[in-house]
């Protein structure tokens, strides 16, 4: 099976504040099996030209609308893109270098046009071109659920019709059969793991009561501290949801304290699972198996953590993390858990809440085996990224999307000129792939 990597990687050209730079890319012939020869060509840099339109630096646009800031051109606040620059099919990747690598798989968005490429002042890179004749955007999402939130919401705001988003990341493999270098697909959806700072606040509060000679403290005395009372109220509702959902929505981790305030409290909270789009999951699985072979594709549940370290059960002595039992408890509660990373939950959760306008799935290259403590030889990563990226792009362009499904926000996006009154018909959008 051929992986057709088509372009040399364009190094980003950093221009002074607000300046634009644009040159044309050299088109390369398709490369050899599994993209290996393409990687070599990319490394030596056959094309020293850039096909980028890059604008890095501190811009000073005027933003209107504190609720959802966009500038006079309709560019979003963090990603800096506007309608016409982003395709309805998006490949979300963690790093800028992965976005650049995978952009070598794309064709020019239109005859004679370079790939569209824009880096926002916050460092989000968006690249738009064609894959198998269909417009596709590759977006670097950086790390963590807040960044995924920017990517999903701000892209939703500048794209019309239904969208599909595939995340291609790296992750930890939690248990066998997942092993280093495998592609782990979150077909069973994702849970999230969040460190609960209230646990440590209550611990401090309880220990204060003890040292103040209050004997066994109880929730009533802890609740004299209003911030703890707020915390208890919030987490009481989380635990109630978890109880109705069986093994979902639980709290996890080591914890012991004689104070009643600590009863039932754990240092890490785990949200109930959110589903992935079943059709997209099936397409991605089929394509991934075609690219790397079925034996290197593993399906299961993903967990997105709010940190790489404590909330993924990585231990150390510098901090009081109370996470020694975390991974074991997660696997016991979720036997289908395969991957541990930091963004997929947010993507799937927002897709679920998108009123049917976003279909999403996550797939990760297993970079770390948490059960054996092995870490992937980093030189092998690029080829795995190309394999995963090829499968993801193929799945994206094969998924049927409803172009007529209206996005409420894009039709009413305010600009200085439009002030929210322009209808979809009235505004002329320049698409980079036209
Ligand atoms: C941590 O090293 C980062 O790697 C994983 C995690 O989700 C986190 O973002 O994904 P990416 O390789 O896509 O960044
Ligand atoms: N990314 C993560 O978030 N965790 C890992 O273990 C590896 C990559």
Automatic annotation (TrEMBL):
This is Nucleoside phosphorylase domain-containing protein. GO terms for biological process: uridine catabolic process. It comes from Astrephomene gubernaculifera. CDD domains: NP_TgUP-like. Residues 90-368 form the Nucleoside phosphorylase domain. Signal peptide: none annotated. Pfam families: PNP_UDP_1. GO terms for molecular function: uridine phosphorylase activity. GO terms for cellular component: cytosol. The lineage of its organism: Eukaryota, Viridiplantae, Chlorophyta, core chlorophytes, Chlorophyceae.
């Amino acid at each position: 099976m051929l992986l057709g990597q088509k372009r040399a990687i364009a190094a980003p050209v950093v221009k002074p504040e607000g300046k634009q730079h644009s040159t044309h890319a050299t088109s390369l012939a398709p490369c050899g099996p599994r993209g290996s020869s393409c990687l070599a060509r990319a490394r030596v840099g056959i094309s020293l030209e850039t096909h980028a339109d890059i604008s890095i630096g501190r811009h000073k646009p005027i933003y209107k609308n504190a609720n959802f800031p966009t500038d006079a051109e309709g560019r979003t606040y963090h990603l800096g893109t506007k309608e016409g620059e982003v395709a309805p099919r998006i490949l979300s990747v963690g790093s800028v270098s992965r976005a650049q690598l995978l952009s070598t798989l794309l064709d020019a968005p239109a005859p004679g046009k370079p790939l569209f490429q824009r880096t926002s002042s916050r460092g989000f890179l968006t690249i738009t071109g064609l894959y198998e004749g269909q417009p596709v955007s590759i977006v670097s999402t950086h790390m963590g659920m807040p960044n995924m939130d920017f990517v999903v919401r701000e892209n939703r705001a500048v794209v019309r019709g239904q969208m599909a988003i595939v995340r291609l990341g790296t992750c930890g493999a939690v248990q066998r059969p997942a092993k280093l270098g495998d592609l782990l697909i979150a077909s069973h959806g994702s849970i999230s793991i969040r460190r609960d700072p209230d646990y440590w606040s209550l611990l401090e509060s309880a220990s204060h009561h003890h040292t103040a000679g209050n004997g066994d403290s109880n929730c009533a005395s802890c609740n004299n501290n209003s911030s703890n009372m707020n915390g208890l109220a919030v987490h009481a509702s989380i635990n109630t949801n978890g109880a109705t959902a069986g093994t979902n929505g639980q709290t996890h981790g080591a914890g012991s304290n004689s104070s009643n305030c600590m009863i039932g409290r754990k240092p890490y909270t785990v949200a109930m699972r959110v589903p992935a789009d079943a059709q997209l999951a099936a397409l991605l699985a089929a394509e991934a198996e075609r690219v790397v072979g079925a034996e290197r594709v593993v399906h299961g549940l993903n967990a997105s953590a709010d940190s790489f370290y404590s909330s993924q059960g990585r231990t150390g002595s510098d901090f009081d993390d109370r996470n020694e039992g975390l991974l074991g408890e997660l696997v016991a509660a979720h036997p289908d858990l395969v991957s541990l990373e930091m963004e997929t939950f947010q993507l799937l959760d927002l897709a679920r809440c998108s009123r049917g306008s976003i279909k999403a799935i996550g797939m990760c290259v297993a970079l770390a085996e948490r059960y054996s403590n092995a870490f992937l030889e980093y030189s092998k990563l690029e080829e795995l990224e190309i394999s995963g990226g090829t499968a993801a792009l193929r799945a994206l362009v094969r998924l049927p999307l409803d172009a007529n499904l209206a996005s409420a926000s894009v039709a009413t996006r305010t600009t200085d000129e439009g002030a929210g009154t322009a209808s979809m018909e009235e505004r002329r959008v320049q698409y980079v792939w036209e």
